[in-house]
Amino acid sequence: MLNVSRGYSLIELLVVLGILGLLATLAMPMAEMTVQRERERELRRAVWEIRDAIDAYKKARDTGAVVESSPSHYPPTLAALTELRDDARADRLGQPIRFLRRVPRDPFAPADLPAERTWGLRSYQSEAGRPQPGVDVYDVYSLSDRVGLNGVPLRDW
Question: Which residues cross the membrane (predicted)?
Answer without folding.
Answer: 6-31
